[in-house]
Amino acid sequence: MLILTRKSGETIMIGDDITVTILEVRGNQIKIGIEAPKEITIHRAEVYQMIKEQNKAALSTACDPASVWRLMRRGEEK
Amino acid sequence: MIIHTRFGDWEVEENKIITMEGPILGFEGVKEYVLLPAGEGVPVYWFQAVREVGVVFMVMDPLLVQPRYAPNLKAACERLEIRKEEEMALIAIVTVRENPFSASLNLRAPILINARTRKGRQVVLEEDTYPLRYPIGEIMGGKEAEGILSLSGEAVKRCG
Predict the structure, then answer these.
(1) pTM score of the predicted model
(2) Are B25 and A55 contacting, i.e. CB atoms less than 8 angstroms apart?
(3) For residue B104, what are the contacts with CB-CB under 8 A and spacing of at least 6?
(4) Interface predicted TM-score (ipTM)
(5) Distance (Å, whole) CA B18 – CA B33
(6) Which residues of B touch A43 (CB under 8 A)?
(7) Which element (helix H / strand E) includes B96?
(8) DSSP B86
(9) Is B137 left (phi over 0), alpha (psi -120 to 50) or beta?
(10) I need a surface site. Which of A3, B47, B53, B158 has the fewest CB within 10 A?
């Protein structure tokens, strides 16, 4: 892992089109500004992990769509 | 072209392919999908990878399950160059659990597609207003958004 020390207001370049700027440091919280091309997706790591796991769970359970529909219709009949 | 799926082979016009500009998280290498109707009279679709038979998600219009669903998609719409409401197709992934049978909808990370350019992305909503597993247990009725209908439009099942 590359480790760099930066002060508030300073920037890091990743490649030639991604910039990471330290906007504010307050206690143990750091505000970061990121600029990147639109094909690059940026997520908080824990959120990314959570969505990824949910996507994988959805994949393994692809089943009969009519059963899902029936589940929804049951609500309608109430 | 012919798309092979678990549910048989489908004839789909090449101009119906949806390209994921931003990935389905965890499936970064899989970029091309088609939307296939999952059953007659059932507003559920398969979001099927063009080349990977095993990559298929059950999806539906989230508004059918939660009519008050109104996530902030402004930035995502800009990135996908969605300018008019008719160009926007929003779908959400269904997760099914067996024993006992239950189904949930991922409202936290819907798939947004520009129906005109057929480019899409899975949008991760910053706020946690909408859950990752919204239980599907009731339907409020209503009609699917036109955008979704236009995406799956002419897919024809060949066999299987």
Answers:
(1) 0.82
(2) yes
(3) B94, B95, B97, B133, B134, B135, B136
(4) 0.84
(5) 5
(6) 25, 124
(7) strand B88-97
(8) G
(9) alpha
(10) A3
Distances from the Cα of A24 to the Cα of A19, A44, B51, angstroms: 15, 18, 45
| CB contact B125 to A (< 8 Å) | no
Whole-angstrom Cα distance, residue B110 to residue B62?
Answer: 8
A67 chain-B contacts, CB cut-off 8 A = 96, 101, 103
> Token pair for residue A54?
């949910």
Q: Which of B97, B108, B138 comes nearest A51 by C-beta?
A: B108
Q: Are A51 and B116 in contact (CB under 8 A)?
A: no
What Å distances lie between residue A23 and A9, A12, A36, B10, B89, CA to CA?
Answer: 5, 12, 16, 51, 35
pLDDT in tens, A9-56: 999 999 999 999 999 999 999 999 999 987 787 888 999 999 999 999
Residue range B138-156, pLDDT digits in tens = 544 445 566 666 676 555 5
**Residue carrying the six token digits 């089943």:** A63
